[in-house]
Amino acid sequence: MHSLLLSLENISKSFGPVKALKNVSLQVAQGEVHALIGENGAGKSTLMKVLSGAYTPDSGTMHLDGQLYAPASPAAGRQSGIAMIYQELTLAPHLSIEENIMLGLERTSFGFVKKQQQKVKEALDWLGQGHLNPDMPVNRLSLGKQQLVEIARALVIESRVVILDEPTSSLTAEDARALFNVIRKLKENNISVIYISHFLEEVMEVADRFTVIRDGESITSGNIAEVTIPEIIRHMIGRSVEELYPQISHSIQEPLLEVRNLVTAPYHKEITFNLRKGEILGISGLVGAGRSETIRSIFGLEKVRNGQVKIKSHPELNAVYINPGKALATEMDLLSENRKEEGLALNLSVATNITLSALNKYSKFGLLNLSQEYETATEWSEKLRIKCRDPKQAIGRLSGGNQQKACIARLLHHDSDILFLDEPTRGIDVGSKAEIYRLIQTLAVEGKAIVVVSSYLPELLGVCDTLAVMYRGQMSDIKPVSAWTEHDIMLYATSGTKVTA
Ligand SMILES: Nc1ncnc2c1ncn2[C@@H]1O[C@H](COP(=O)(O)OP(=O)(O)OP(=O)(O)O)[C@@H](O)[C@H]1O
Asked: What's the CA-to-centroid distance between 87 and ligand 1, angstroms?
């Protein structure tokens, strides 16, 4: 290990009765990429909030370069050289690249402004983004580029530690590659990176060392080169995951949903396919290929230019356009990829969030049976291992991955026949992923029809029966998963070209 730069010793932090961190220690060397690994709710974000100055620990100490480090605020943390880059980026969308990079730094004189422009330019050049116009508003940039703007901001203030919290979960493969190159450059310049990710393959590629935390305690640390993914999983969840992609045999039967010549808003391509009872259909493709738009249009959430959607159980609804209320009533359900804005009522309890779309199950004469609602929520929390103190707790207090699990619980509880799952395992740890894959298989056994949209190809190949790939609004033929190779999928996803046998 290079020389020690940062040391967190015996950090504890509680939120009321929840002990989020119990004597956690973490050592980070100068210029290393240190992966912080743990299940949903293990305490990773809380630890990083302590490090960045957003939370004050209840006990424990931190040292930065041998000096006691006790930031009173995130601004103090940044000033000491700790830059936190959250998964949900914190840029001001309408401000320019330059304004965002310099945000919080005082402009005092004209000379300073000149110097500032110079610094912004240097940082962008360094990140290989010299071609970007600093006056462009950041909301015109892709998510990957916006992340680089956040890193540029960290460079300008000469950060020594950059914390990346699940940086690739919404990035295209290309943007993720660019990010890895930047991480390598940061290392070469002796800047340390703390890297949080549930994608263990990525961790193996990018990190030098790792620390695993479980239930708020540090479990082990070591060199990445000396550990395997199954070993990391065992440390994370205290047991091995026997099968990441459990297979439960199920039969595919008659179509439940027929989509004919569907044309969605930004594209002029017609999509036609059947979704059958007991089928798990995966939709692959790059970000922006129209995957989410397609399933959202079928569900009635996006504008449809043309086409027909027929639901077998409701032949009267032979409609071009259905609204989501009708979609719910007609036995379709959608898990949005955007859980904060579309999936959850953050101030309401976990129990209410889970039962929200099926409240009629708990009401009689207009009154809700709360104890029954609570019981059901407890069952689902256990089934999906949702880590919460109590189902009455506000869902906004749960860790990101646990919020996502609650969204899935709601969908399963609503018990529709046709399910659209958009990025169902984003932000979810490996152990829970395996549970969700098992549940998807069980749904197919029960005769549901399921569409899974995902950017994580191994999960589509591991879970689905059939697969289609999208390219610029156009959908490939649907083929059994076994008939696709990764090469064919990428070829179609990047060029819309079919492989000829
Ligand atoms: N502000 C808060 N109030 C109450 N409890 C909280 C708060 N923030 C975090 N917690 C709890 O602390 C524990 C650790 O949460 P944390 O967000 O640190 O987990 P995580 O490891 O980052 O999880 P994920 O991988 O899902 O992002 C969880 O039980 C969570 O519910």
From this structure: 14
